[in-house]
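Page 47, continued from p. 46.
Same chain as before, 129 aa.
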Amino acid sequence: MNKDIDYDELESRAKELYARIQGDDVPSRFRQPDNFSTQALNLGATNASLKQAMLSTTTPTEAAKMFYSTTNSDYGSCDPSIIEMPTQWSGSKTTISRMQNNIVYRYNGFNTEMDKERFMDPYVTIRRK
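Result:
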């Protein structure tokens, strides 16, 4: 019962399935994830030399904590596939987004804050002759 799994075939089938699941309302930029550009950092040589330096000064558990990849550059080093793309889209129109920048904010509430100063400044109030 020990079957060898062909992961490449499994991945291709999953990509085909996700491409079929995507609705018609999904923008074309999400239908073609190959168009996304990412920058993969080549840190292989520097990581090896840095790892040797770290292992000589720290314990193995501390070195493992320091090399745990949780930075944004590590997450963004791989190109997205169709599996990571959304299958449904309910985004807003750009005209509404443009209109939101032109709205003036107004607060029509009561000013119930106490005055900060104990005495009124005579130069700020109305001057009498």
